[in-house]
Amino acid sequence: MIEVIFLGTGGIKPTPERNVPGIAIKIGREIILFDVGEGTLRQMEIAGLSPMRINKIFISHFHGDHYLGIPSIIQTMNLWHRRKPLHIYGPPGTAFFINNLLSSGYFRPSFEVIAIELMEGEEVKEKEYRIKPFQVSHGIPAFGYIFKERDKRGNFNMNKIKALGLRPGPWMREVEKKGRVVINGIEIKLEDITGPKKKGAKVVYTGDTEPVPLGDIAKDVDLLIHDATYIDEEDRKESYHSTVKEACEVWESGVLVLFHRAPRYKYVEYKREALKICPKAYVPRDFDRVLVGNGNVVFKVR
Question: Out of 35, 65, 208, 288, which one is annotated catalytic?
Fold first, then answer.
């Protein structure tokens, strides 16, 4: 199970009510950031999240409200004597923009900051998860991201073990490690003695985009965090963003999160009008948390 924390739920500029985009995913002891708008470090402090646990940052695109919080996070890591590398991923142009940030002001990181430009579909793989970018439409190089937690084996099923004439013992550790073991001349596979697999969480974040077909990306999703900057098309005009209705139309499974609301809307007003258009969607506030795993989505609203 993972935890998704909304550090900033609006777009374009901060307001007294909400910050610009920032999403944290906690998996184990690691924190992964998706977009780092200005003020994200302060938001993390309020949320009780340590920047020292961040190993990876994924930037959807290089408009200021999505990345200008990076320097303060790096400088804080520096002051706290970080040593391990920080990886920052993004679309083409990422290395240029990050290197410019690192040459600004009178500080240099005491640790390695590695800027990596991804190609569409190129996976970042770790033991417990993988993250894959996909192309969106925002008038500049821009990605959305698919976060997929690894599926886990089911629990040991004592009824299945007894049905095979076996008793719990050290052999269980061996079959868990190797996937199979031979006992009394009979091969026992891990799936023979465990329950159904536990489905890993799938979270999709579009970043800023006008409506684009998501296809398989939108299938089997637990949480779809979609640009829904404007209530209607008249507000949007030609801004390369999506409306609530357009976000609702590409939604296929899981929970739809309406994200990146424009500063012209107060939360209560936006939520009231958005839910008239898309009644089953979720409108987050800053610092809302969501637990996701094994097909379940549990909201911890502040």
Answer: 65
User: Taking the CA atoms of the chain, what radius of gyration do you get in angstroms?
Assistant: 22
Asked if the model's pLDDT at residue 40 lies above 70, the reply is: yes
Strands of the 223-227 sheet, one edge to the other: 124-125, 129-135, 143-149, 202-205, 223-227, 255-259
Kindly tell me the burial class for residue 129, based on how many C-beta atoms sit within 10 Å of its own C-beta (0-12, 13-18, 19 or more). Answer: buried
Strands 255-259 and 223-227: parallel
CA–CA gap between residue 59 and residue 61 (Å, rounded): 6
% of the chain beyond a pLDDT of 70: 100
Residue 227 known to be catalytic: no
φ, ψ for residue 231, nearest 5 deg: -75, -45
In this prediction the pTM is: 0.90
User: How far apart are alpha carbons 118 and 157 in whole angstroms?
Assistant: 42
Put residue 260 in one of left, alpha, beta given phi > 0 → left and psi -120 to 50 → alpha. left
- What does the alpha-carbon distance between residue 140 and residue 204 come to, in Å, rounded to a whole number? 20
- Which residues touch 261 (CB under 8 Å, ≥6 apart)? 9, 10, 11, 18, 228, 229, 267, 270, 283
pLDDT tens track for 200-247: 999 999 999 999 999 999 999 999 999 999 998 888 888 899 999 999
Q: Using H for helix, E for strand and C for coil, what is the string for 156-210? A: ECHHHHHHCCCCCCCHHHHHHHHCEEEECCEEEEHHHCECCCECCCEEEECCCCC
Q: pLDDT digit string (tens) for 84-96?
A: 999 999 999 999 9
